[in-house]
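Per reviewer request, we include the raw input and output of the structure prediction for the construct analysed in the revised manuscript.
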Amino acid sequence: MTIHELLQRAQTRLIHAQSDEPQANSEWLLAHVLHVTRTWVLANSGFDVSEKDARTFEQLLVRKETGEPLSHIVGFQPFCGLDIVVTPDVLTPRPETEDLVERVSTYFDKRGEHLFLDMCTGSGCIAAALAHKFPRASILAVDISQAALQVAQENIRKHKLQDRVQLLQSNLWEEVAGTFDLIIANPPYIPTENLNTLTREVQHEPRLALDGGADGYEVTRPLCQAADSFLRPGGLLALELDDGQAWPLARGLAEIGWKADVKKDIFNIERFVFATRD
């Protein structure tokens, strides 16, 4: 059977299963099975796939039909030019978070000896991306989940960043010491009552990394309330939030002395808050 034939059947099945992005998921799965790039798959539609590879593809396709995230099936997710190991213990890195990292990167000199803090690090994708972009920076990556930190450790080792990225298990600020040029976070922000409305793929991800409590601010609120004690003069607080949360948080920060601004993400959603203190 050719690549074209396999992909056509796979896309039809994923559409029927109401899977996210059926075409892209089919192409990524087959590329993974064939150990090639997605571009190669698209450029070689007439290539005959072996029976062994077709069977493997079928097994993975069945998993995708159940709603299992692509990143869990293939074991990684591209993020800011890095392949990030992903397991069911961490969120899958998303384009919005890539956008956050890219925007934050414009605030700092790439040659500077900065000290960054990545709160709620999860897979460590933000910490790894910042360490990669800022070769003289040091990053503290914090999470309450030991399981998530084990995944983060694998990613830090994979990209040979152990000398500049330190991992710390802490419930927000409890174990954190020192001050930082940047505090960046993609915290749990989904209101609890909305968790059941998320896609099947997202519902495979850890509730701890999604559940923002009754109003979605259960983690973000204490994170922000103490952030000024850990931020150096002229430093930046950068947050990713849910649709509709950014302006209320920015106004709350302004009330306690911050200068806060809201930015839209690549999907035109007001998702990011960037805040500084004099």
